[in-house]
Design a protein that fits this description.
DUF3169; membrane; transmembrane; DUF3169 family protein; single chain
Length: 234
């Protein structure tokens, strides 16, 4: 019975040991390969982010046009799932596009110190402007479709006011999703740190990457712990 209880842990340890043994066996051969991106890393990241941004922008434009063409025709007492799903997807991807724009700023600023290509900062700036415009437009459609749960992005405590307007079922969904996200991110942080440690055996990985991931992991757990303690006295 005790073996079954720790079945997943044993399997993970066995797989980790197997992968570690394989990497150790091939480490000499792998170390001879030129896996360092060197100065091309910024170019590679810039191109990947640009391509992803173009794909997202095309998706956002198509879906925003669709929503704009149909949202006024909807019965507010029975909003089709197609419309509501497209609205939520556009809001999500607008946020993702904003994050990509901020990453683009970091890449361009880092790159500009070496080659003086600071003018490229216009690219992430345009991406952020597009993301903000699409997000504000879609929020207008969302407020129309959900008149009892309107949310104004730039209002003070907008998220809290929107949350208070939700019913108990919707709040339960948010609670559940939040905990699931928190729980799964523990595994994501651990996996990223393990990946960085493995990569550092073959390529030069900046120590700041480990520090940033570890710091975010610690901060997330501290926030959760402090918030949980607030309810212990209740």
């Amino acid at each position: 019975m005790k073996i079954k209880r720790y079945k997943k842990f044993i399997i993970v340890m066995l797989i980790s040991g197997l992968i570690g043994g394989m990497l150790g066996g091939f480490s000499e051969k792998i170390s001879k390969l030129d896996l360092s991106f060197g100065g091309n890393m910024s170019n590679l990241i810039s191109k990947v982010l640009f391509v992803i941004s173009i794909i997202i922008i095309i998706y956002l434009i198509i879906n925003t046009i669709y929503i704009k063409s149909n949202y006024m025709k909807v019965d507010l007492d029975n909003v089709p799932k197609v419309i509501s799903r497209k609205v939520s997807n556009v809001i999500l991807l607008s946020t993702v596009l904003s994050i990509i724009g901020l990453i683009g700023y970091a890449v361009v600023i880092n790159k500009s110190f070496d080659k003086g290509s600071f003018y490229l900062i216009i690219v992430p700036t345009i991406i952020l402007i597009i993301a903000a415009f699409v997000l504000m437009t879609t929020m207008k459609y969302s407020n129309y479709l959900n008149p009892n749960r309107k949310m104004y992005l730039y209002e003070n405590e907008a998220e809290k006011k929107h949350f208070d307007k939700l019913d108990d079922g919707e709040k339960w969904v948010i609670y559940n999703c939040s905990y699931t996200t928190f729980n799964k991110m523990q595994k994501v942080y651990a996996a990223i740190l393990v990946l960085i440690m493995v990569l550092s055996m073959f390529i030069n990985v900046p120590i700041v990457a480990c520090i940033m991931i570890g710091s975010i992991w610690i901060i997330q757990n501290l926030i959760y712990s402090f918030e949980a303690r607030k309810y212990e006295k209740m």
